[in-house]
Amino acid sequence: RTHTTFSLRNLLKCVINFFFRSKCSYVSGTSDPYVKFKIAGKEVFRSKIIHKNLNPIWDERVCLIVDNLQEPLYIKVFDYDFGLQDDFMGSAYLYLDSLELQRPLDVRLDLQDPHCPDQDLGSLELVVTLFQRSTEDRENLRLSDLHRKSQLGRGIVSIRLLEGRNLIPMDQNGLSDPYVKFKLGPLKYKSKTIPKTLNPQWREQFDLHLYDEEGGILEISVWDKDIGRRDDFIGQCQLDLSKLNREKTHKMELELEEDKGMLVLLVTLTATVAVSISDLSVNLLDDPHERQQIIKRYSPLRWFFNLKDVGIVQVKILRAEGLMAADVTGKSDPFCIAELCNNRLQTHTVYKTLNPEWNKVFTFNMKDIHSVLEITVYDEDRDRSADFLGKVAIPLLNIRNSEQKAYVLKNKELTGPTKGVIFLEADVIFNVKASLRTFVPPEQKYIEEEAKVSKQMLQQNFNRVKRCVLFLINVGSYINSCFQWESPRRSLCAFLIFVVGVWNFEIYMVPLSLLLLLAWNYFLLGKESREGSVVSVVMDVDSPI
């Protein structure tokens, strides 16, 4: 017996006659709108933000699985406000039972506010198509999509963006603020911005998933960051990945078109899956048959098969609880980044919560059994860099397979706890040849954290310099008081000591004075320790039994 479900395809087009409500937009007369879709109270889609526009065009497509046509699609429009709670701009209902099967329908929905039903808030345009699917088709569609994302047919393109050379100046000061964009099929990545330089050093890594149906052309463009206006285009170049040997790191020095500079990259094209992201529902290690196949693959009997393939690491990032509130609303928008050497994967963002659930499975190819798996939690900020919430570091040798554990999040230096707990489950399956890395230097990590000024270290250095300066000032004041004869007895003693010292000075007295100072300090420290032991004995005697 099959249960009938429906697939709803939406094309979100535009909003016309938009009314703005943003607290900040009363000055500019614009809004930053985005749209949410909800079914049965659960958010199923969120559009991108169109900045400073009252007539936004999204042109986004989404496919939704619907179990009950009697449940309407609830559409809400918000205005994004940085640092504040997003403003509600209107909502509408799309009644699915009125749609015809397999017939695209142009829909125009008037936005309304339940508190102000007579106010004109604009309208929303969509193209909606309803398809009928069986439960089996639905599950196959979902699993095939998840498998396509987790099992990457042609492998992964690992790009280490090292530096740029002799870029052309785009600013009036004769410099630029360059950053790089990568595009491979539908995948897009963007590097950080290096300010005021023509020879930037990025030292960043990007892992681009390469699908079978995609072309092998990597498009690279360099831009100059400008605040308050559109970024300037510096130059571009392309890299044909089909000409690169697999499982080998290539150092590429790519000239930008029209001699506008050069980019230096390290590119590695892996034929096997080095990393993957999947949902819990398609976790291969949960299948006993698949697990046995993987264990057999790394058995001691297969020592000489593929010497580079030494094992896999799979980590399930389940959820976190009690995270730090990073936004002014008392909430956070947390996401996780998992790192193993130079491999780096990221979960989706769960918005406005301190107890997120990710339920993602990350799979890495192991290169060194002595590596450390790092899980870092960040708060997403659309207009600036993500805020650090916590971090855990787990040596692979300390992982117990299939054991779910709660880890207390720590600070960046891993010296103390922060707020929150993260729940993880990990598996490490490897061949004994992984131990050979013990005699080989560890893999160099190309992703470097930006050097930041530590307030605590700065305060410590300031206090140390302050103590030295105060000591010199006190010594100078004491010597000056002797010259001023503020205390005749002290000045007379100092004068006699000075005369006797100058009259009888020998060069051996310099190290001898240092030795006497050392003996004096030893005597004082020994006296303090003896007094402390006596006090502790007295306290032990006086304490009740």
TrEMBL record:
<dbReference type="GO" id="GO:0030672">
    <property type="term" value="C:synaptic vesicle membrane"/>
</dbReference>
<keyword id="KW-0106">Calcium</keyword>
<keyword id="KW-1133">Transmembrane helix</keyword>
<feature type="transmembrane region" description="Helical">
    <location>
        <begin position="494"/>
        <end position="520"/>
    </location>
</feature>
<comment type="similarity">
    <text>Belongs to the MCTP family.</text>
</comment>
<keyword id="KW-0472">Membrane</keyword>
<keyword id="KW-0479">Metal-binding</keyword>
<dbReference type="GO" id="GO:0046928">
    <property type="term" value="P:regulation of neurotransmitter secretion"/>
</dbReference>
<dbReference type="Pfam" id="PF00168">
    <property type="entry name" value="C2"/>
</dbReference>
<feature type="domain" description="C2">
    <location>
        <begin position="288"/>
        <end position="409"/>
    </location>
</feature>
<dbReference type="InterPro" id="IPR000008">
    <property type="entry name" value="C2_dom"/>
</dbReference>
<keyword id="KW-0677">Repeat</keyword>
<feature type="domain" description="C2">
    <location>
        <begin position="1"/>
        <end position="109"/>
    </location>
</feature>
<feature type="domain" description="C2">
    <location>
        <begin position="137"/>
        <end position="254"/>
    </location>
</feature>
<dbReference type="GO" id="GO:0005509">
    <property type="term" value="F:calcium ion binding"/>
</dbReference>
<dbReference type="InterPro" id="IPR035892">
    <property type="entry name" value="C2_domain_sf"/>
</dbReference>
<protein>
    <submittedName>
        <fullName>Multiple C2 and transmembrane domain containing 1</fullName>
    </submittedName>
</protein>
<keyword id="KW-0812">Transmembrane</keyword>
